[in-house]
Amino acid sequence: MGDKKETVCVTGAGGYQASWLVKLLLLRGYKVHGTVRDPSDDGKNGHLKKLANAAENLQLFKVDVLDFESLCEAIDGCAGVFHTACPVPYSSDLQDPQYPWFKWYSYAKTEAEIRAFEYAKENGLDLVTICPSLILGPLLRPAMNIASELLLSFARDGLEKVENNIDFMAVDVRDVAEALLLVYEKPEANGRYICAAYPAPLSVLVDKMKTFYPNLNYPKQISEQGFARKLSSEKLERLGWKYRALEETIVDSIEDFYEKGLLDRQAYY
């Protein structure tokens, strides 16, 4: 694994995390087959076509990840597959509004991982998984993801009160891309790897933001429980994974919001 210029497939290539992975792969000399719902939709996938080396080394395939035949076409000729797509149908009609929507997303990811390891064992496939915590960092694609919307809301909306009962750890989207490529290129990589850089209570995120951008419209009050759990990325770090400081992630995220016009540099709250 890991020879330069080999071809790999990235499912859900236009996604928040996948876009950074595609960018990294192209910069490292890989040829990439990216699966998307509609390659001609430049509103969703145009950013991929503008990446360095994309013209010669990126091919987008129209794929429904639940359609085996279309997946086979994209994977054909590839030395490896990065499966980042996660089909979770979203509906405004929630059956149980008291049950957070993201638990279904987490369940889908967990169930897919269990089934994938079972299939890999039965069929002799070399499978490694990366399990990231809350992913933060700048956007390559036009659409916002949930974590970016959260950060933007904290910087812009002046919320009266934010309550949180979830233990957050965070990691930079670019460092997750590095982790994905690292475990692909390391023959000794095996099993599953937690990819979490630092504890990130919402109060800590906001305090860090205030350090660099004191005039934004922050929540007036944040109430959250104490943090009892800490995830360890020691196994991943033993492979050579490194991560950037939380401060860098926050600054790059806020600057990205400014560049995209989501925040106004002239506004002082």
Automatic annotation (TrEMBL):
The keyword Methyltransferase belongs to this UniProt entry's keyword annotation: no
GO MF annotations, alphabetized: oxidoreductase activity, acting on the CH-OH group of donors, NAD or NADP as acceptor
Keyword line: Oxidoreductase
InterPro entries linked to this entry: NAD(P)-bd_dom (IPR016040), NAD(P)-bd_dom_sf (IPR036291), NAD(P)_dehydrat-like (IPR050425)
Gene3D superfamilies registered for this protein in UniProt: NAD(P)-binding Rossmann-like Domain (3.40.50.720)
Record flagged with keyword Oxidoreductase: yes
Entry superkingdom: Eukaryota
Domain NAD(P)-binding: 10-98
Listed name of the protein: NAD(P)-binding domain-containing protein
Organism from which the protein derives: Stephania yunnanensis
